[in-house]
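Suppose you are handed a protein chain with no further information: no name, no annotation, nothing but its sequence. What can you learn? This example shows the usual starting point.
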Amino acid sequence: MGQTSLDDDDLFGEAADEMRSDVEASLADARAALPDADAIWEVEADNTLGVLNALKTALDVGDAEDHLRDAKKWYTMGERADAFEDADDLAAAIEDVEALIEDVEDAREQVGDLTATIPQLRGTLEEFEADEDGPEADADSDAGEAEA
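A reasonable first move is to predict its three-dimensional structure. Written in structure tokens, the prediction is:
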């Protein structure tokens, strides 16, 4: 029976190592799926709306959320099974990736709001400029008629 316990302990140790590896691999995949810093800094476009659309596209987190979910799943299983000797580093890494994903998604939402607002603002400004040109043109023509 002693041999069976040793084998079970060895198997549990191997399973714990595999769970840690799975968490670490999923976190690495999540980091890799996040946008590249240069992709959100350097965009090319002909106008503001083009820049905003390119930035919104660059701020897509892709599969990072799915990879984070996998990391959290394996981490939770390992924690509940008390399989990790020291999992503080894993918990901290999960929190860091989760916070970064939230920041990127918040930025993407803000850019999306601007993408919707800028064309509307442009239209309003164009209308304002047209209205501004209109009364002045009318005043000039009225002044010309008064002199005649």
